[in-house]
TrEMBL record:
InterPro entries: MBL (IPR050698), RibonucZ/Hydroxyglut_hydro (IPR036866), Xnuc_lig_assoc (IPR026360). Residues 325-366 are annotated as: Disordered. Keywords: Exonuclease, Hydrolase, Ligase, Nuclease. Gene3D superfamilies: Ribonuclease Z/Hydroxyacylglutathione hydrolase-like. Residues 328-354 have a biased composition (Low complexity). It comes from the Bacteria. GO terms for molecular function: exonuclease activity; ligase activity; RNA endonuclease activity. It comes from Meridianimarinicoccus roseus. This is Ligase-associated DNA damage response exonuclease.
Amino acid sequence: MPQHDTLHFTDRGLYCPAGDFHIDPWRPVPRALITHGHADHARFGHGSYLATDIAAPVLRHRLGDIAVDTVRYGTSLTVGGARVSFHPAGHVPGSAQIRVEVAGQVWVVSGDYKLENDSLSTPFEPVRCHAFISECTFGLPVFRWRPQAEIAAQIAGWWRDCAAQGRTAVLGAYSLGKAQRLLSLLDPAQGPILCHSSIEDTTDVLRAQGLALPPTIRATADTGAKSHPGALVMTPPSAMAGTWLKRYGPVSTAFASGWMALRGVRRRRGADREFVISDHADWDGLNRAVAATGAERVFATHGYTDVFARWLASSGIDARPVQTEFGTADADAAETPEPAQAQADPSADGSGTAAPGGAGRIAARD
Ligand SMILES: [Zn+2]
Ligand SMILES: [Zn+2]
């Protein structure tokens, strides 16, 4: 990569020489700019952190005693020889794309993003740039999301059916972002909503920031189907098989994830129901986002990087995949799509499964 590039890909992460800072680094660095609080983007051990004012409370909650400076969306800062600003990514509350300008060259790091307005996160705003570093977690045409109102209706119907059959509805969702988005789609008049403590803790942090979330009850040793008949229990996927759920039996289990679009993942999960909803852009969203930047260079990170970069290159964009350590840290929601069962060909409608980056295993954190 030429030395005059605004950002460099290093073994610690994305680095801006002019500003002497890293963005979402995966090894300890003196100064880190952080797009959002998910574990593969916000790691412990940096000298200082800079994030949006909305993202900072969750960062402190997850990383403890760290030095965090905050900035509001759209406010321009000078960091060394670089101009820096954060812009809404629509992924989780406070999530940002980071714009870096050096000597008239504008680069944007997307972090994770989605285009649909979930009414909790500040909606995604495209940022014009020369070079766009884009995630592509769901960079295959098979991934096309339905509007979230449709998914909300599906979940409400499933919960109603569970209650009618005397079953507790147990919904698996990642603790930061997805869980709160799903909560905001639930009608508390339908029944009590209980949350595993890891979800309840994060929800409390976001609630304290003024986000509108329905009332929830912390799942404890004293709660169960007897005390809360007709309940919906939200749990991180990792706790789905725990013995703690015995108190809620009989249960009906469901997962809410973009990966539920893949047959292989659905089968392996073995839940009674699945809901296809993600906090990452789908295939159309990725393509619309890239087009809206006007970028002539695109670097594809975590996900189906090879496929997405090849697809963009075929339409005349200077696009290439980049190896990063994003998308590998969140054991919480780890999925393992099977190795390629079908061509990862964007020109096909993609009804099969292919592993991103040609690897057989990925970790998902949507
Ligand atoms: Zn994320
Ligand atoms: Zn990510």
